[in-house]
UniProtKB/TrEMBL annotation:
It comes from the Bacteria. NCBIfam families: PRK00823.1-2, PRK00823.1-4. This is Putative pterin-4-alpha-carbinolamine dehydratase. Belongs to the pterin-4-alpha-carbinolamine dehydratase family. Its EC number is 4.2.1.96. Keywords: Lyase.
């Protein structure tokens, strides 16, 4: 499955994913982990400008996908948390947007 090729779909009344499916999808996103009902990663940057550039790019992705992370923004890092409010837990939407957040990073 290529998460980057997928798009978020409305999840009103949907059930959250099973633990097993969450574990399988985490295999696509090795730098992310689950905290409660959230998919979380701390992105590190060299300075505030780079942090804000990423935050704004991710806001644009969130707008395009109509799926919105909680973010805490600091000088050199942004903590990104995805969860699907409409389902009360994790859905494929969270993994799609996490993959799209990863894809924003410059190549190493
Ligand atoms: C109507 C609209 O599609 C929904 O309210 C979307 C908007 N963004 C969302 N973002 C997140 N993180 N979870 C949702 O359930 C959600 N629902």
């Amino acid at each position: 499955m290529n998460l980057l090729e997928l798009h978020c779909e409305a999840q009103h009344g949907a059930h959250p994913l099973s633990q097993q499916t969450v574990s399988e999808l985490l295999g696509h996103l090795p730098q992310w982990h689950v905290e409660g009902i959230e998919l979380v990663k701390t992105f590190m940057f060299g300075d505030y400008y780079k942090t804000m550039a990423f935050v704004n790019a991710l806001a644009w992705v969130a707008h395009a996908e109509d799926h919105h992370p909680d973010m805490s923004v600091h000088y050199n890092r942004a903590v990104v948390r995805f969860s699907t409010h409409d389902a009360g837990g994790l859905t494929l939407n969270d993994f799609i947007c996490a993959a799209k957040a990863e894809a924003l990073l410059p190549r190493a």
